[in-house]
Design a protein that fits this description.
Elements: H1 2-20, H2 47-68
Length: 69
């Protein structure tokens, strides 16, 4: 019974995310940026820095766990 309750709670939390962040649709049927939406933000400006930080974090974690074993 507890496992079923945990499953329902997890499913509710995961599925409510879609509803909570849903945006209302346009009734005019048109898409794109003509509806007054802002320009999309670029995500590639700091991508190399993010990749280097991730690699350094993995190396740090690997070395830390290797010393403990």
């Amino acid at each position: 019974m507890k496992n079923l309750l945990k499953f329902y709670l997890l499913a509710f939390i995961l599925l409510s995310d879609f509803v909570a962040f849903a945006q209302p649709g346009d009734d005019d049927g048109g898409g794109g940026l003509e509806g007054g939406d802002p320009e999309p933000a670029p995500i590639n400006s700091k991508l190399i820095l993010l990749a280097i930080t991730g690699i350094l974090f993995v190396m740090y974690t690997f070395r830390k766990n290797k010393k403990q074993a």
